[in-house]
UniProtKB/TrEMBL annotation:
Signal peptide: none annotated. Pfam families: AsnC_trans_reg. Gene3D superfamilies: 3.30.70.920. This is Transcriptional regulator, AsnC family. It comes from the Archaea. It comes from Archaeoglobus sulfaticallidus PM70-1. SUPFAM superfamilies: Dimeric alpha+beta barrel (SSF54909). Residues 6-75 form the Transcription regulator AsnC/Lrp ligand binding domain.
Length: 75
């Protein structure tokens, strides 16, 4: 089982829209709007790297999203 944190930058003012779109996605365990360099932090869980890749690809397709950074948990 893989666990990853996905840091997201959104377009200005689109944080809530992206947050709402991510809340019910398969593989997404938690979604948080944060202050700082990134706008949203997502906690995702997947069976393997291919499934994680698909989750990240689906997240990156959301309207209002500017960029992502994926951190895969190792320990």
């Amino acid at each position: 089982m893989l666990l990853a944190y996905i840091l997201i930058n959104t377009e200005i003012g689109d944080e809530e829209k992206v947050y709402d779109a991510l809340m019910n996605m398969n593989g997404v365990m938690e979604v948080h709007i944060v202050y700082g360099v990134y706008d949203i932090v997502v906690k995702a869980q997947a069976e393997d790297t291919d499934t994680l890749r698909k989750i990240v690809e689906n997240i990156r397709k959301k309207a209002g999203l500017r960029s992502t950074l994926t951190l895969i948990v190792t320990k």
